[in-house]
Specification:
The protein is α+β, with helices and mostly antiparallel strands. It is about 20% helix and about 35% strand. The chain contains seven helices and 15 strands. The chain has helices at about 85-90, 100-105, 105-115, 165-170, 170-185, 205-210, 265, and strands spanning about 15-20, 35, 40-45, 50-55, 65-70, 75-85, 115-120, 130-135, 140-150, 155-160, 185-195, 225-230, 245-250, 255-260, 275-280. The strands form two sheets. It has a ten-stranded antiparallel sheet. Strands 1, 2, 3, 4 and 5 form a five-stranded antiparallel sheet that branches. Strand 9 and strand 10 (about 155-160) form a beta hairpin. The longest helix has 14 residues, at about 170-185. It is globular and about 60 Å long. The two termini are about 30 Å apart.
Length: about 300
């Protein structure tokens, strides 16, 4: 098949395509749905699947692209990306007269690829002229999954997927999103990544000790830290937060904010060892790699 080396590598094989195939009759066709290719999964010695192989339709290259998705590990918890409006107009063969048309037309891509739908118009977001709600609709419930915004900001389109929306996306959806990001020439403006340590081996005290030892050092100095509910730097203080303890590294103004907190206690279990580690990345002064959706 054709070698799509222009794609950032989606696998250690360089992200090869399966070659040209019959073009789908429309962007809303079932053809756009990602497909498993279990024959090419990578497995461990015990037979467990370590890396899933997915086949995703590239809306610009008109070929199926192989995407390898590692199983387990961290997850994407919040995600925002932008792309040129001109890229959307090249992909969608339809008239888009207004900014609201642009917002609503992206349904033709997001629904078959990610299972997300466009909802009603909402107040403007991120300084764009028009915004619409992004929805995930199940058989018995619906979730506010974020928003789509267009109009202004150097003629770009913004898609924001909330934590609730990200939780509804399966591996096939993230594989499809990766290819779509490449197809649209997208730039990631925010990616919140999370890892759950259910055994609590990497506790908030462990993170604080790592900070003291310079594990977060970047460019010659430690970023500032902010412990909440405990004092790892001297005399221990009484727990002041009923939701458990938290250790922050960085700040809201920086490109990266890390936090470790006692998620189990936040959920109401006073003896739970569950600790969640989260990193909030912003793409203001750095380029966040597109394959972060595959290997967070």
């Amino acid at each position: 098949g054709e070698d799509l080396r222009s794609l950032p590598p989606a696998s250690n094989t360089g992200g090869k395509s399966l070659g040209p195939i019959t073009e789908p009759p429309s962007l809303g066709a079932l053809f756009l749905f990602p497909r498993r290719d279990p024959v090419h999964d990578r497995k461990g010695e015990d037979g467990a699947v370590l890396v899933e192989r997915w086949r995703v339709w590239s809306v610009t290259r008109r070929v199926m692209v192989d995407v390898d998705f590692p199983v387990g590990g961290a997850i994407v918890d919040t995600f925002t990306f932008t792309f040129p409006e001109a890229a959307l107009r090249r992909v969608l063969p339809r008239s888009m007269v207004s900014d609201l048309d642009v917002c609503q037309s992206i349904h033709s891509l997001l629904h078959p690829l990610l299972g997300l739908s466009i909802g009603p118009e909402i107040p403007r977001k991120n300084f764009y002229a028009k915004s619409v709600q992004l929805m995930w609709c199940g058989a018995h419930d619906a979730v506010n999954a974020g928003f789509v915004a267009a109009g202004g900001n150097s003629d770009t389109v913004c898609v924001h997927i909330t934590g609730e929306g990200c939780a509804k996306l399966e591996r096939r959806h993230w594989a499809a999103l990766y290819v779509l990001l490449v197809d649209l020439g997208a730039r990631i403006s925010r990616a919140d990544l999370a890892f759950d340590d259910f055994a609590g081996g990497a506790s908030v005290e462990w993170v604080a000790a790592a900070w003291l030892l310079g594990a977060f050092n970047n460019g010659g100095r430690n970023p500032k830290a902010n412990p909440v509910g405990f004092s790892p730097f001297g005399e221990e203080v009484a727990l002041s937060n009923p939701d458990g303890r938290t250790f922050y590294v960085g700040s809201r103004e920086s490109d990266v904010l890390f936090r470790a907190y006692e998620k189990g206690k936040q959920q109401g279990d006073p003896v739970s060892p569950w600790v969640r580690h989260e990193a909030e990345w912003k793409g203001r002064d750095r380029v966040i790699p597109l394959d972060v959706v595959l290997r967070p």
